[in-house]
From TrEMBL:
Source superkingdom: Eukaryota
Family: Belongs to the glycosyl hydrolase 25 family.
Protein name: Uncharacterized protein
Keywords: Signal
Signal peptide bounds: 1-18
GO molecular function list: lysozyme activity
Presence of the UniProt keyword Signal in the record: yes
Length: 198
């Protein structure tokens, strides 16, 4: 399979050290991961090094395909890296609490990957998905991140400035150790780290 076909459905982004991270929701085989790892993505210095699979969906259920993709990536890299995944929390009426969602997501990951360490990214984006009550959204995110940290997970945020402002407003009370995976939709290199400073 050609790398171009494989990369076509991936969300790819670069970290400061020119490592390439990506996520995808379609099934990816070990062979496809190996092909991508052994190829360059954006030039000779940009190697694919990290995969962040979806482990939880906005309908309040674990993502078995995403978790299997993480397993396949670990196999392709000979378990060299700490696994990473993201959850798109369920935020509509009738959803489990933030704490219960994190516990269920982590239990699904542990059962499938047999791992005790994990990096969790929380997806905070989507227009007309989150409730309009920004204060309630802030408490929800704090509860989710707090529960994840209490489970020993390294917890970070995926968002954009537009979505962050829309969903939680001027919310800056997460730990300074919380990293930001910034969705750079506008193409402008801007640091939004300040949104997470205490």
């Amino acid at each position: 399979m050609k790398l171009l076909n494989f990369i076509a459905f991936l969300f790819v982004f670069k970290y400061a050290n020119s490592s390439v991270y990506f996520d995808a929701i379609q099934p990816i085989t070990v062979a496809q991961f190996q092909c991508a790892i052994n190829s360059t993505v954006g030039g000779t210095t940009e190697q694919l090094k990290y995969f962040i699979g979806r482990i939880w969906t906005s309908n309040g259920k674990s993502d078995k395909t995403g978790i299997q993709n993480i397993q396949n990536f670990l196999t392709a890299t000979n378990y060299f890296l700490v696994p990473q995944g993201y959850m798109f929390p369920c935020v509509s009426d009738g959803c489990p609490s933030a704490s219960d969602q994190v516990k269920s997501a982590w239990n699904s990951v542990k059962a499938s990957l047999n791992t005790s360490s994990f990096v969790l990214w929380v997806d905070v984006e989507g227009e007309n998905i989150w409730p309009t009550n920004k204060t309630a959204n802030q408490f929800f995110i704090q509860e989710l991140v707090g529960q994840a940290n209490s489970l020993g997970l390294r917890t970070n945020i995926f968002t954009s400035k537009t979505y962050w402002d829309l969903i939680v407003g001027n919310f800056k009370t997460l730990s300074t150790s919380t990293l930001l995976w910034y969705a750079n939709y506008d193409g402008q290199p801007v640091c939004y780290r300040k949104y997470f400073l205490k």
